[in-house]
Amino acid sequence: MNKTPLLFLNVIIIATCGLIYELLAATVSSYVLGDSVTQFSLVIGIYLSAMGVGSWLSGFLDNNLAKRFVEIELAVAVVGGFSAPLLFLTFANVSYFNIILYAMVFVIGALVGLEIPLLMRILKDEIDFKNLVARVLALDYAGALVASLLFPIFLVPKLGLTRTSLIFGLLNAGVGLWGTWLLENLIKPRDTNILRVKGFIIAVLLIIAFIKADALTSLAEDALFVDNIIYAKSSSYQRIVVTKGKTGYSLFLNGNLQFNTFDEYRYHEALVHPAFAVHDGNPKRILVLGGGDGLAVREILKYPSVETVTLVDLDPEMTKVSKSVPVLGELNKHSLEDSRVSVINNDAFVWLDSAETEPFDVAIVDFPDPNNFALGKLYTTRFYNLLKKKLKPDSAVVIQTTSPLMARKSFWCIVKTLEASGFSVKPYNTTVPSFGVWGYALAKLQPFETPSKLPENVELKYLNEKTLSSMFEFSADTNLPNEEIEINRLDNQALVRYYESEWRRFE
User: Fold this and answer.
1) Last residue of a domain, one of 159, 191, 220
2) Which positions are catalytic?
3) Average pLDDT in the 135-164 region?
4) Are residues 299 and 179 in the same domain?
5) Which of 211, 235, 258 is the last residue of a domain?
6) What does the pLDDT average to over 215-229?
């Protein structure tokens, strides 16, 4: 039987597994450390350079190439397979996580870099050099394509990071065991038996870990979060975790706190009601971008004039959280189930660009902070120009704009970008204990006065007219800095650069 095609199949599997491990490391590091642009860049750079080191090291291996190939495959199965759970556990328990992260990426990259040259040398007697190189490289790139498609579309949303890591480790172990059969005429019988025993033990350990993946994930997350986890879900876009502690319930997305039930009303009252305060009339049609927890919608529905609320949030799992966690449904007063509310699960950028809809009276923009380019695009001039098309001439808009104290340049970058898009802007800030000093931007398409009165007969726990006026005052350390602030555009993503450099100081 000609085993050459089967060995070529191994190339696809090796390439797929290698890229999956790289993506896993980059994703885990961005989950736990934030700063996704830097983390992805470093992980990819270290991995690719390590592959080069591995390819170079392969030149020092002269004997027992088939045996070495299987041993390396089994080593990748162990290091790569257990990489995600190990990274989560080490982040929660050691202070030198970055060293472990980059060392693991380098080791996996070097091992993967060793595999392909060894396999090519094993195959050199079976096929001429020109066709060998062409086929191996073509299949290598094909494997990368398979990985890049599987990872975001199926693996992360369906299996989660931990199970994805373990199942590909199991796949590597299977390739190693398969290799003892494909290459048995090149391996000594005694070595073949030893390799098969090792491969079997590694496969069993990975299978056990796969079965216990939920326990491993819980063990890691229990160490990451101070409070008890009562709900955890991996969607196609993010990791959603709800915890319960002494101060109440907290919602985290990719490890970043979104709200705590103890003080969320401060954030959401400050987010919603200033826009209604400056609207000349009785707002009927309201647009909410982001805000899948339904808490901003809860505040909006306090106004009897509201007839329709359109909420656009990318993640369907996010808009289901208040159903999955009953206490959150009670907190938002089941706002997303109100007959006046329509929930659309779509990218807000795409929706604004394509949706045919009547203009809105008020728009509430409640996106997560711009810590990556995917979110950064939602704070660009292009996005705000699309938003303008969905507004009436007298419409009011509010945008959450991160902390003017912790991320001063980021805050004012958003304000300047709004102004560059044709909005008249009144920035303001308030204190939310869970977050500290937090900022917002109130905007209209025409010049307007700073609001001084709140709408009547609206139940509020935090805001009053004195508080409302004080929110538009800035201290010296939060005011516009005495330096040029870039406008955030699609082609420069200045905001993401500001945000990462400012928040990195507090890691």
Assistant:
1) 220
2) 366
3) 79
4) no
5) 258
6) 77
